[in-house]
Write a structure and sequence with these properties.
Layout lengths: L2 H11 L11 E3 L10 E11 L6 E12 L2 H14 L3 E3 L2 E14 L12 E12 L1
Parallel strand pairs: 1-2
Antiparallel strand pairs: 2-3, 3-6, 4-5, 5-6
Length: about 130
């Protein structure tokens, strides 16, 4: 049981995400030759929040990646519904505080110069191990 597996469990078990297959929800990176849409996520910080060693807060960043900006934003809206309180993969999530969602539009180009659109959502997850 890790925080990363908990976040992935939220994203793939959430009934609200129907635009991205489970296999395209990955931790840290997306292979450039995989089909879109996709979701990647990473934990940017993880620290204890109280004297009790089991209570922690983690900053996460979730990237909703699609060919078109409107599709990336639609996936980001579904991500906001899927990241929620409850018990996932044996870890209890007590609170979720969303930060911002920033859209990075697709870059038009040829070959490897083209980039898909990304909607980057940040959140703080308070959980107990």
């Amino acid at each position: 049981m890790s925080l990363e597996s908990t976040i992935r469990a939220m994203l793939i078990n959430g009934t609200t995400i129907n635009l991205v297959p489970d296999a395209r929800v990955t931790h840290g990176y997306r292979l450039q030759d995989t089909a879109l849409p996709a979701i990647t996520f990473e934990v940017t910080s993880d620290e204890r929040t109280t004297v009790k060693a089991t209570q922690r807060a983690a900053e996460i960043e979730i990237r909703s990646i699609a060919v078109e900006a409107v599709d990336a934003l639609a996936i980001a809206a579904q991500v906001r519904s899927a990241i929620t309180t409850g018990t996932f993969d044996g870890m209890q999530v007590k609170a979720v505080i969303f930060g911002s969602t920033v859209l990075q539009p697709a870059a038009v180009g040829e070959g490897d110069e083209a980039e898909p659109a990304e909607a980057v959502t940040t959140a703080t997850i308070h959980y107990e191990e």
